[in-house]
Design a protein that fits this description.
Layout (H helix, E strand, L loop, with lengths): L2 E12 L3 E12 L2 H25 L2 E16 L10 E14 L2 H11 L5 E9 L2 H29 L6 E6 L14 E4 L10 E3 L5 E3 L6 E12 L1
Antiparallel strand pairs: 1-10, 2-4, 2-5, 3-4, 6-10, 7-10, 8-9
């Protein structure tokens, strides 16, 4: 009888189902009240649009959970030609998760023209229900890969059918450190929104977004005897 220790791994790729758009509203000026008022106005205009998109079903949710207001000090120039000055800055962040990528591209095109709005990027993902399903599929496929590997080794050695003794997730094998977890989601997204542009039905120029597939990887190790 021989011990056979193998790993099983699989990577599945799936089309993105959600796009998380990250935005920031940032304004700066010499008049604190004017900067704050304009920041609030732009922020509320964006969140009102996000609310409409959610009600229409294009977005699944949105959040605005960060606001900062402060001073920006510009030092005097070394030659004394410019005195030090103080300016005021306000910044708020907004995140909107889309399931309608055409609506996402349209809105990005609109926001790109709004003074004070910066687009920090898009993170692509699967929907929550789909994510659980594909992670389960990956775990099952990783175990099947380990069984196939063990069978190949047993056949090559002229042994009988391998019998499973134990299965371990990464980091859970006795004597090994690290954290456990049968798999992880990798988001193949691009931070650049400028890959291409195209005309929509109304003749406006919009960003042509092509998210990378989502990679779902599961890895296990297993002990067999044969």
């Amino acid at each position: 009888m021989a011990d056979i220790v193998v790993s099983g791994t699989v990577t599945h790729r799936h089309h993105a189902e959600r796009g998380l758009l990250r935005l920031a509203v940032e304004l700066e000026g010499d008049d604190r009240a004017a900067v704050v008022d304009e920041g609030i106005a732009v922020h509320n205009r964006v969140t009102e649009q996000a609310t409409v998109l959610r009600r229409q079903g294009a977005a699944t949710w949105w959040t605005a959970r960060s606001v900062s207001v402060g001073l920006v000090t510009e030092p005097a120039s070394p030659d004394g030609s410019r005195a030090s000055s103080v300016r005021y800055r306000t910044r708020s962040t907004i995140e909107v998760r889309f399931q309608d990528f055409a609506a996402l591209a349209d809105w990005v095109g609109e926001l790109a023209h709004v003074e004070g709005v910066s687009i920090d990027g898009i993170e692509w993902s699967l929907g929550h229900a789909r994510r659980a399903e594909v992670e389960q599929d990956a775990r099952l496929a990783a175990v099947a890969d380990a069984v196939a590997r063990a069978s190949d080794y047993a056949d090559a050695l002229g042994l009988g059918s391998p019998v499973l003794q134990a299965v371990y997730e990464p980091g859970l094998r006795p004597g090994e450190g690290g954290s456990g977890g049968a798999g992880h989601l990798g988001f193949g997204s691009s931070r650049s929104l400028m890959a291409a542009s195209m005309l929509d039905d109304g003749g406006s120029v919009v960003y042509d977004l092509h998210p990378a597939d989502i990679e779902v990887t599961a890895t296990i190790s297993a002990d067999f005897t044969a």
